[in-house]
Amino acid sequence: MKKIVICEKCLGKNLLKESPYTQLCGRCGAVIYRKIEALEFKTASLSFSALIFYAAAVSMPLLSIEINGKSSQLSVFDSVSLLSESGYVLISLIAFLILILFPFLNSSALFLFSLFKLSGSSKAKEALKLYTYLRKWSMLDIFLISAIVALVKISDYAFIEIDIAFGALVVFVVIETYLTKVIKPEYLWELLDD
Ligand SMILES: [Zn+2]
Q1: Which residue ranges make up each domain of the chain?
Q2: How far is the CA of 34 from the centre of ligand 1 (A)?
Q3: What is the rounded CA–CA span in Å between residue 93 and residue 101?
């Protein structure tokens, strides 16, 4: 069956080749289809690694801040509960969902999808549906960028020590970005057509 793919960059229409490897847009040269070998194994190992780094990033302190001799540690959980303690209950709830719950469910759904697909279970479709929906709502990457901007701003008058969980958060965001940008849900849905 011939399939038409719209280029995300120039919106040009491209006819997908029969058994395509990586295919470029005929108009602007952007990648419109990427053939990824052993996709189930890759998504299984990447989403499993993401879950481990997620656990470290969320459970441990990201950094220690010292201002005027007073030192305190800050974790993702702390920043969410601080919001609620300051009276921003709704914002704290939204932060909990997009920074803690959805990133966890998102990586778990992808990991479960890979396991179900590898074991030939029909539940793979349900897990992929959940992943396709949740991936838009996982926003730890935005949290990381905001945290870096805030750190640069307060670094003039505070002593900041980065902890190991901050490194775990960076690795988690790199894995998630790779999963979002390179392994598109369309490729995963194609696995179910086989
Ligand atoms: Zn194009």
Answers
A1: 1-35, 37-193
A2: 14
A3: 10
pLDDT digits (tens, 9 = 90+) for 38-74: 888 999 999 999 999 999 999 899 999 888 888 888 8
Neighbours of ion ligand 1 (CB under 5 A): 7, 9-10, 12, 25, 27-28, 30
pTM (2 d.p.) = 0.83
- Rounded to the nearest angstrom, the distance between the alpha carbon of 99 and the centre of ligand 1 is 34
Q: What is the pLDDT of residues 136-147, one digit of tens each?
A: 888 888 888 988
Ligand 1 centroid – CA 177 distance (Å): 22
CA of 42 to the centre of ligand 1 (A): 27
